[in-house]
Amino acid sequence: MRVSVDEYHYRRGVQDRCVVGIEGESGGMRFVFHSHGVALQLASDTWVQLQFCHAHRNRVPKRMASGKIRFHQVMYEQVWKGIDLLFSWSEQQFKYDCLVHPEAAVTDIRLRYTGGTPLGIDVNGHLLVGTKSGVVREEKPVSFQQDGSVRIETEYTCYPDGGFGFRTVTSYDRRQLLVIDPNVRYSTFIGGSTGADNGLAIAVDASGNAYITGQTNSTDFPVTSGAFQTINNTTLPGLTDAFVTKLNSVGSSLLYSTYLGGNSADRGNSIQVDTSNNAYVGGFTLSIDFPVTSGAFQTIVGSTSGFVTKLNETGTSLIYSTLLGQGTLINGLAINASGNAYVTGATSSDFPITSGAFQTVFGGGGSSDAFVTQFNVQGSSLVYSTFLGGNGADTGLGIALDSSENAYVTGSTSSTNFPVSTNAFQTVLLGLSTSAFISKLSASGSTLTYSTLLGGSGIDSGSEVMVDSFGLAYVTGDTNSTNFPVTPTAFQTVFGAGLRDAFVTKLNATGSNLLFSTYLGGSGNDFGIGLSLDSFFNAWVTGRTSSTDFPLTSDAYQVNLGGSQDVFVTQVSSSGRGIMYSTYLGGVELDIGNGIVVDRNNQDDVYVAGPAGTGFPTLPGAFQTLNPSTAPGNPSVFVTKFSQLTAVGATGPTGPTGATGSTGAQGISGPRGRRGPRGPRGPRGAGGGETGL
Max Cα separation, the chain? Predict the structure, then answer.
């Protein structure tokens, strides 16, 4: 059970009467395990206690060998008949699991937080306990048997004495161990039997439905009746169509699924969804018959053209579909509130540029320039379009917008004269290789607000960028530079022992300095590919790793590398000083996390997509629980949804206003009493956020 613990403030409680046992620290919190509960010290004079009620007396906490570096575990055996409690923590987070052994009763579990007032269970099934300083929230429990392959629906039960426990909603095998509660909500394959399928990007709507795009050469890729295109139109073996699939919120069925392509190679690289649940897809095509709409900006394909396609809510028709450029790849797409699509990628000199754009002349020295283009709402014309490059090879890979519709672009460049701003963090390409870049383009597309390189003396590339509500840009990518710029207090300041590491970097609002920058990797090869931000601006990163020692957290869903290469999913704290959650995700074949999105409308649920092979973890009830491909080594698309991993408590109340002073002898009011102190800030997200950072 994840407990939100990183910023709670409580009065000193019954811990004063505890017999001190094993002690530990996590995320600035100290805790003491004793015979009838756990005392948590959250500030110098503030404590809360999790008590074991109606438990066997004198349960002795035992330190366990976790088998994982930097992880610690303490076990209470037989707290209730046949039920153990396992507490786990690392430097950044604290959690506990209830282990219900065969023939034991889940209903025997009784716990209680002291020092607070029970508030009951909220509409999402979370347990709430209030104090004058904030709210403790424990997430709705999820339970598993058989190493996570069998999911048991579980709920909280509240008792009149202020305690709480659990009850199982669905039946389970009482002859086997029941574990309460890992984090994965659903995990499914989506694919055909005749080819290889690759998920490249994912988006989510307000109802929690996931939208996925990518490429497939399966002739039986799952499509839905009435979808826009139900047949793979490629004419030669090995060629791929793009696809667009909408998966329901529990991962059990397709709301729609359609091919998107012509007679040659087509690929969807990026996807977004608007408030009307229309999907926007960006990618590239070589097909002369790629589906375009009447009145589109460009209807004839070049040797390779980018495409932007907008599908209606049901996936049955195109609202618009247009091509873009000659020798052009669209790699990243963003949309604004009005439904304008913004794209970036790589292009040749034969590319449409608008008057007054920032750069109207091709850089000329390399094989490609990056570009940034904004379409009108109808996809029929360009609002602006600009090159972004110099005398080398330049590629745009990710794009994001802020609230003022400034566009932030990241990618890679080998240009020694790539356009940078005067006060940029890094203005010179180091070495003779490539660097990542982050450029902020004005809302009109006419000027660079800032532009900076980001790299060392090796090969560096930015793959995705996000921007928070303060105008701060976050970027992930990969590097083999041992001198890649990192900040002194970052989570990982030393390059791993492999060929490449992922990185995560946060820039200030002017692009002149790094707020944090960290490596993320181990002794193998690690690539940061997808990036999203949660409600507290923690950075969620996915990609691929071959490192057996990739940094994980104590509550990782999967603690071992499944094959030669797995997906990783990592939550980097908003300060960059720690990781709040990190896990492998994979089977015995090659698995890659290409896209990740945080659903801020639904408790910060996290969705990940990519290609995966045999043995990839899925859950019962998913749309496809086994890799449908019959060819050895052929991947299918996977989509995995993680439950809420962060929670926030209420801000503490403002202290009372001091009493008004007495009236003076001459009838003049006395001084107003001073304002009472403001209550402390309530708790932040679960799983080891960093206090005060």
Answer: 100
* Residue 209 tokens, joined: 């439905």
Full-model pTM: 0.74
Q: How far is residue 301 CA from its own chain's centroid?
A: 35
Express each pLDDT in 237-270 by its tens digit: 889 999 999 999 989 899 999 999 999 999 999 9
Buried b (16+ CB within 10 A) or exposed e, 634-646: bbbbbbbbbbbbb
Query: What burial class does residue 668 get, using C-beta atoms within 10 Å of its C-beta: 0-12 exposed, 13-18 middle, 19+ buried?
Result: exposed
How far is the C-alpha of 366 from the C-alpha of 415, rounded, in Å? 8
- Hey, is 15 helix, strand or coil? helix
The tens digit of pLDDT for each residue in 312-361 reads 999 999 999 999 999 999 999 999 999 999 999 999 999 999 999 999 99
Question: Counting beta carbons within 10 angstroms of the beta carbon of residue 264, is it exposed (0 to 12), middle (13 to 18) or buried (19 or more)?
Answer: buried
CA–CA separation, 284 and 303 (whole Å): 11
Q: What is the CA radius of gyration of the chain?
A: 27
What is the distance of C-alpha 357 from the center of its chain? Answer: 33
d(CA 40, CA 397) in angstroms, rounded, equals 45
Closest Cα partner for 330 from 414, 213, 227, 219? 213
| Type of residue at 326 | Q
For residue 436, give the amino acid letter. A
CA atoms within 13 A on the CB side of 190: 36
β-pairing verdict for 22-26 and 29-34? antiparallel
Two tokens, residue 678? 């403001």
CA-nearest of 141, 108, 145 to 125 is 141
- Residue 368 and residue 392: Cα distance in Å, rounded? 8
CB 371 within 8 A of CB 329: no
